[in-house]
Amino acid sequence: MQNNARKHKILEEQGDRIFALDIGTRTVVGIVGERNSDSEEFVLTEYVVEPHNKRAMIDGQIEDIKQVSKIVSKVKTALEEITGIKLTKVSIAAAGRALRTHKTRLDFDISEREYITADMVKSMEIETIQKAQKELDEQLKEKTVFYCVGYSVLHYQLDGYKMLNLEAHKGDSAAIELIATFLPSIVVDGLYSVMSMNGLEVAGMTLEPIAAMNVIVPPEIRAINIALVDIGAGTSDIAVSRDGSVVAYAMATTAGDEITEEIIKTFFVDFSTAEEMKINSTSGKKDFEYRDIFGITQKVTTKDFNEKIDAAVENLANAVCEHIQTANKASPAAVFLVGGGSLIGGLNKKVATKLGLDENRVAIGNHNTLRSVDTRGREVGAEFVTPVGIALTAILNRGYDFSVITLNDEKIRVFDTKKLSIFELLTLAGYKTTDIMGRSGRSLNFALNGKRRIIKGGSFTPAEVRVNGKTASLNTFVTQGDRVEFSPAVSGENAKITLSEACGYSELFNSADFDDSDSPDNNIVIRVNGELKSADYEICSFDRIEIAFEDEPNEQNASENENDETQTAEVYTDAKEEEYGKITITLNGGELTLEPTPDRSPHMFLELLNHADFDPDNPIKGYTLLLNDKEVSFSDPIKNGDVAVITMEQEKIPEEITMPEEVTEREEIPEQEKIAVNE
User: Going by DSSP bridges, is the β-strand pair 477-478/85-86 parallel, antiparallel, or unpaired?
Assistant: First the structure.
């Protein structure tokens, strides 16, 4: 630690200096350095390692945010005191717990471009990542939000040829194929919460095996089939290179903790003592002392210690090799082991044996294997590979930024594409399309005494959007720090009406062709699709409604009515059977038989809609009705032997959106001159 005078020294601005944190299950490693402008190397200036004093991390994921924040604060404060720099920006990495990967390809038309710029390549990569994100969401069908935390370009193509780099080239078409890695929002949000508590802005984020790859297996040697394994306390994260690219990622939950637990059970020690014994076993000492849970000081040789934990080391080697072979589809040509867990005695030899490799093909990463890094003579071990890789990834600008945007007082974290619209933000926040766009209520179509009617659905109230206090549209772009206020759209109500309400319009009765002889002794009889319905029946789309007056039966003419009904029945079933009975027609090339209507009334063209091939939930943009090669209306009668054709053009509407139906040239029910109905 520094003296008090140093503590009170005014700190310099961070500037271009790089601060990287590796938040592991057992320790937090912080490093500070800078970029060598000539060689683009990362120059390591200082580092601090602080162990967790409580179990705040499980399998590389933050469980206790406040506790982890305290340890990060210690690391940050110590580095500030040592370097005299006020640390405000940090680069971080996430472990592979709950890791998801997805490979995809996207093609681009670049025929109108002069030359491909670096910004164009970055933009195309982002579009490809967004495609991977969409495909992964559709594949997983989970409510959990996944963030992209890293990607590797498998290859570029220009006019069908594979390229190492697209920048400065010109052509007609380009393509990018990449593999993107995703983690659940809970993992990413936990890391960002810890940084926020310490007043740190995240300058970039990546995945731990990607960071290690960048510093151990740079692009120039990725033609070799190499597996890199970052063995921490909670997870063993794996990345595989082949044919010039990183082609696969994997993660095993078997790691250094399994060794620690075996030490606890075998030697009767607490967790911290077990961790210390594990470190001592790799120090080169022939023997070392420890104190067990009974307070007795014990002594053990390194050889005896390694023999007793051999089974646990065997299990770790099995898990690592199994995941390597699954990801690579075979044993690789070489393996690099990094991370604190890689130092366990005999692990590298076991991995080599299980993969069928020479022992010298399985190496433990250290300062001798770091590339593009100047450690200033420090002999940093395998546990520093990942934090140094995080810093180098920041220099290479391969980390990810996330913009934090406030939406209705809630912070939303989104991948910084530089072009995020309000619509995209609301979709990421979980709003449905109907909340964002709104929809009019569905219209109601029916036929009344052979005449087509339509009642429009209610109109919707559009959404209201304000960005930083100013009115905005759904196409407005937002960026880091913006405050968005959003009031969802209110969809219109679907049209609905009862028979009582529909028949309360005098105009309807004018069309029923009644004469002045109708008297109060007559009853209004309403049939819907041939069936008697009460006045409170709610009309459905495509209902066929018939309104008629019928004489009130009484005792004096009951027998006469019975005779009349018999005579009438004879007339309908005999003289007009062909016109009003069962008929067979041809509809759109297929034979269709229609049963007699309940009241023996003529069949109407409207009935054929129930047999036409169309979706009633989607609006009709236009239609053509032909009867015996002539255009007709829905109310025209049809008879036996007729040939009918119905063609319809429909607009397919997504499930979340319902557009108002077309009402052009359709007669609407007037909203005046209502008359009472005898219910």
Answer: unpaired
